[in-house]
Amino acid sequence: MRASITTSGSRLARRSPAPGSNATPHPGRRAMREIAAQPLTPEAFAPFGDVVAEVTRTALPFNGRPGARAVLEVVAPPGPSEPGRHVVSLMERHLHSTQAFLPLDGEAYLVVVAPDAPDGGPDLAGLAAFVVPGDTGVQYRTAVWHVPMTMLGASGRLAMHVHKDGSDADCEFRDVSPVGIRLGAVPAPPLPSSPL
Question: E-strand spans in 63-108?
Fold first, then answer.
């Protein structure tokens, strides 16, 4: 296992444009689609992965490649692209591995996920956004399209676990038509536990 610190939460491996996507707005084009981020619940997140709020057997890591190593990194994702809103124009997935994130500093963060489209890319019609409290982790299922992490507090770090073998199969990136995520109220960081 190796440990490193990155600022984006992911490294570029392979990028492919979405058919008909263009991240640059043009005059005369219709307005950017927007969705509202919702509070994270295990039921709403179940199609995409597991909520890690306590130690259970439901969020066991999966590695579909025997030669891939378990990697644990500390990532420091950026904040939203603008106050109260985050614009999504890039998604990624890990075809052969689950990927888990656990907050280290008690700050809330944004998770944006999408099911597969018939062409294998992300289905933006099914895009879902979740505000995750700073005392809760998530684990994506294998091959789930998601957006690189975004912190919603002043700053924060996440522990990230994934399996990698150094090949292009570690992570696939896809440019998508921009979608605005309305953030709404962000939960306050949890209070520290008092000693017993």
Answer: 69-75, 85-93, 99-103
Q: Which residues contact 184 (CB under 8 A, 6 or more apart)?
A: 36, 37, 84, 131
* 167 C-beta neighbours (distance < 10 Å), count: 13
Nearest CA to 17 out of 172, 131, 153 is that of: 172
Which pLDDT does position 53 carry in this prediction? 83
Which amino acid does the sequence have at 158? L
Tokens encoding 60: 């066991």
pTM score of the predicted model:
0.75
Are the beta carbons of 107 and 156 closer than 8 angstroms? yes
pLDDT tens digit string along 141-155?
A: 999 999 999 999 878
Name the DSSP class of 76.
-
Domains of the chain: 5-13+32-182 (2.60.120.480)
Asked if 13 and 168 count as a contact pair (C-beta separation under 8 A), the reply is yes
Name the token pair of 47.
């199609």
Give dist(CA 53, CA 39) in Å, integer: 14
Q: How far apart are CA 36 and CA 40, in angstroms?
A: 12
Three-class secondary structure of residue 196 per DSSP: coil
